[in-house]
Amino acid sequence: AEMAAARLSGTENRLVSLPLSRIRVIMKSSPEVSSINQDALFLTAKATELFVQYLATYSYKHGRGKEKNALTYTDLSHTAEECETFQFLADILPKKILASKYLKMLEKEKWDGEVREDDEGEEEEDEDE
């Protein structure tokens, strides 16, 4: 029985490119997961692989990388931003911006936050009178 299991796992490993041991670690990092069935592990790995292939192919076809015959980060982030199917990845694949622009955005948010806090304070004072 052990040899059959070894043969099966060897075949499964050839059917997926992603390392099953790493996927098991990621799955086990979820507090809801206590044990992982071998079939569930294999199917998760295969589904992940197919998803990544789809994301890469879509991004390549719809991006500027085709001109350079390369898939770029910008192509991926553009896909996450523009394509409804991939919008859940927008936080993971953010558009690249210059650090100086990011710092300006943070500064603006800080000022907006302070203005809002002041406004709220004034409203509270008005209510007391």
TrEMBL record:
Protein localization: Nucleus
Principal subcellular localisation of the protein: nucleus
Domain Transcription factor CBF/NF-Y/archaeal histone: 17-78
One Gene Ontology molecular-function label: DNA binding
Spans through the membrane: none
SUPFAM superfamilies per the UniProt record, alphabetical: Histone-fold (SSF47113)
This protein's UniProt keywords: Acetylation, Coiled coil, DNA-binding, Nucleotidyltransferase, Nucleus, Phosphoprotein, Transferase
UniProt GO cellular component terms: CHRAC
Domain of life: Eukaryota
Function: Forms a complex with DNA polymerase epsilon subunit POLE3 and binds naked DNA, which is then incorporated into chromatin, aided by the nucleosome remodeling activity of ISWI/SNF2H and ACF1. Does not enhance nucleosome sliding activity of the ACF-5 ISWI chromatin remodeling complex.
Protein name: Chromatin accessibility complex protein 1
Organism: Rhipidura dahli
